[in-house]
Write a structure and sequence with these properties.
This protein is an alpha/beta fold and 297 residues long. The chain has 9 helices and 12 strands. It has 3 domains: 3-72, Orthogonal Bundle (Arc Repressor Mutant, subunit A); 83-161 and 264-291, Periplasmic binding protein-like II (D-Maltodextrin-Binding Protein, domain 2, 3-Layer(aba) Sandwich), CATH 3.40.190.10; 163-262, 3-Layer(aba) Sandwich (D-Maltodextrin-Binding Protein, domain 2). Strands 5, 6, 7, 8, 9, 10 and 11 form a 7-stranded mixed sheet that branches. The protein starts with a helix and ends in a 7-residue tail after the last helix. It holds the Pfam family HTH_1.
């Protein structure tokens, strides 16, 4: 199996069908189909389930995908590290982020970085926290922005100060006597939309106050949570940085208090990997903007 076979297989899985993958790879669809058939024959396994319009992987195909993602990440990362030696701040920065932290941090960060280093380009992945770390481990990205705790033996990291959780609600369903905050005990019988990572703590806090919360949806999709709140399905418990995503005048937010709940953002990169010059400079700028740390550029 050659690198070109891995890239072809990876493109098919990422695009979801062979025709789109062929366009991405700039080859004819029949040629790509034959290439995959030869690959399956050489491996002695079936990688794709036949008879489905959208690509579905067999068990062997799923193992293949995870390994290929790691191998291609290693190959592409090595090429970038070698070619960027002595080239200064140029090339492409690959980073992954969760929705809320990315919306809060990246616009200012990338805008300022672009003004300083206009020759740098960006590739940005958006996913949930565990997937971001997986992309880091597989060297698909160099920098990950997540709310997931990271292993200090594996990753270098910067941890931002805690930020409070807030309740985002349709203003026609506003709760709480205070205009800026809502107490936990005011949430009795109130429908709640909550990400999985905060569910157990939230439920425990409610039980300490003598009631069982009315959770109508557990969802790690911040955008989906906001849409459900907009539709009046319930109140969404989210980080205060989510307010940067509020473009609808019908949505308002209030800080959750008594007790407060909070979260934090982690910027992580692999310890055993040399960052590209561009990514190293981006980390320095991040420290400068968000932690007020000045260093040499």
């Amino acid at each position: 199996m050659e690198i070109k076979d891995m890239r072809a297989f990876y493109a098919i899985v990422e695009e979801g069908n062979i025709s789109h993958a062929a366009q991405r790879l700039d080859i004819a669809q029949p040629a790509l189909s034959r290439q995959m058939k030869r690959l399956e024959t050489s491996l002695g396994v079936q990688l794709f389930e036949r008879g489905s319009r959208r690509i579905r992987l067999t068990d062997a195909g799923r193992v293949m995908y995870s390994r290929v993602e790691h191998i291609l990440g290693m190959v592409d990362g090595t090429v970038r590290e070698i070619t960027e030696i002595g080239s200064g701040v140029a090339g492409s920065i690959r980073l992954g982020t969760i929705t809320t932290s990315g919306a809060m941090l990246l616009p200012e960060l990338i805008s300022e970085f672009h003004s300083r280093y206009p020759n740098v380009t960006y590739q940005i992945w958006e996913a949930e926290g565990a997937r971001i770390l997986e992309l880091l481990d597989n060297r698909v990205i160099e920098i990950g922005i997540t709310r997931t705790q990271v292993d200090s033996k594996v990753y270098e990291s910067i941890v931002l100060p805690n930020e409070p959780l807030v309740l985002i609600m349709n203003k026609e369903q506003e709760i709480g006597a205070d205009q800026e905050q809502v107490r936990m005990d005011e949430l009795r019988d109130v429908p709640i939309i909550i990400p999985l990572r905060w569910q157990s703590v939230f439920v425990a806090n409610c039980r300490k106050l003598g009631f069982e919360p009315h959770i109508v949806c557990v969802s790690d999709s911040i955008v989906q949570d906001l849409l459900l709140a907009k539709m009046g399905m319930g109140m969404a418990l989210l980080p205060v940085s989510s307010k940067t995503l509020l473009t609808d005048g019908n949505l308002i937010y209030k800080k959750l208090v008594e007790p407060e709940m909070s979260t934090h953002t982690v910027i992580a990169w692999l310890k055993n990997r040399t960052l590209s010059s561009s990514s190293a400079h981006l980390i320095r700028l991040f420290r400068e903007i968000f932690l007020n740390e000045r260093g040499e550029n």
